[in-house]
Sequence to fold (211 residues):
Amino acid sequence: MNNNHYPFELVPLPYAYNALEPYIDEKTMQLHHDRHLQTYVNNLNAALKNYPDLHNWSLEQLLYYSDILPLEIRTAVINNGGGVFNHNNFFAGMISVSEDKNQTAPNLMNAINSQFGSFDEFKKQFKNNALSVFGSGYTWLASDNNGKLQIVGTKNQDTILPMNLYPIMLIDVWEHAYYLKNYNVRADYIDNWFNILNLSQAEKNYNKIRS
Ligand code: MN
Fold:
């Protein structure tokens, strides 16, 4: 599986399509992964096809240095490369209901408690941010190089990489992420998502930044 550079490939889901039931339904996961993400992968590769100088660039490099990309493919790379980066992180950030036990995230929990007061207070702020993203986008728990956490909302498929921030966890609040199950009620989807949050992965993300 090559995902360091062009041609990018579809990363398989790390769990079954129905593994997040009843919080996220099987059909939504199928469409979200097999169609939406696949389309971003295909469109990213198509944009890069005639630019061999970029074929050894990582996804993170393409997004971080997007302002020096050739103008004619810049928007396509930001949108589709962002779509790949965001979805890969989003899908890896959830965990099968059957495996969702004994997750520990000691370092991240310490940081959350000291910066937000408590995990409940963090959840409240994160949910409010996710509700406030107008249209399509994401809400992130992000960290800077020093491990300082912040909650950030982004539009469309923008990423936080150009802000010198790194993802700890993120929720996709595009309607395609929840409309089949929750219709227009984004708040219910956000509450459900917290039940399948992969805290171990979030801890790994956080430890990697601090190391
Ligand atoms: Mn999505």
Notes: The mean pLDDT is 96. The longest strand covers residues 137-143.
